[in-house]
Design a protein that fits this description.
alpha+beta, Pyruvoyl-Dependent Histidine Decarboxylase, Chain B, 4-stranded antiparallel beta sheet, about 20% helix, about 45% strand
Length: about 150
């Protein structure tokens, strides 16, 4: 199983536009995202995000938060734990929450999921995106499941 881990942030004139702009900043704005739960095949391989076919149906785990309250500090976090048998992904978000606390929360949740399954963690990756809202802003962090049919070229 191949995955890419991405993040993005941006502003926009509406909440929807800010979210779309953040997806575009992350490299996943021109595809249809299908939210899936949090499981990976064992020994998942992490790759850079390739160019995806416009309009492709793309499975992902998505963490996102949008705010229209100027001054808010918004954060989206994804934590990925990979083991030999399987892997787990968690997401969390925060508005005006301590960044380190959000990272710790994501790590704790993914460690717990792996422990409950009796799987030793070989690798853990945490990806986040944070922004201070000027007018309307959105942040995203995502695990994108890569299949040959969604990759351009």
């Amino acid at each position: 199983m191949k995955i890419a881990i991405v993040s993005g942030k941006d502003e926009g004139p509406t909440k929807l536009n800010a979210f779309d702009n953040a997806l575009t900043d992350a490299g996943i704005g021109d595809v249809n995202l299908i939210k899936v739960s949090s499981m990976l095949a064992g020994n998942a391989e992490i790759h850079n995000l390739p160019k995806l076919k416009a309009g492709a149906m793309v499975n992902c785990v998505l963490s996102e938060v949008t705010s229209d309250n100027p001054g808010d500090e918004i954060t989206a976090v994804i934590a990925v734990a990979i083991g030999e048998k399987l892997g787990c992904v968690v997401e969390t978000t925060g508005i005006n929450k301590n960044f380190d606390d959000l990272i710790d929360e994501a790590k704790m949740m993914v460690e717990y999921m792996m422990e409950k399954r009796g799987v030793e963690i070989k690798d853990m990756i945490v990806e986040s995106s944070t922004a201070t809202v000027k007018d309307i802003a959105s942040v995203v962090a995502s695990v994108v499941y890569l299949k040959d049919e969604i990759i351009e070229g």
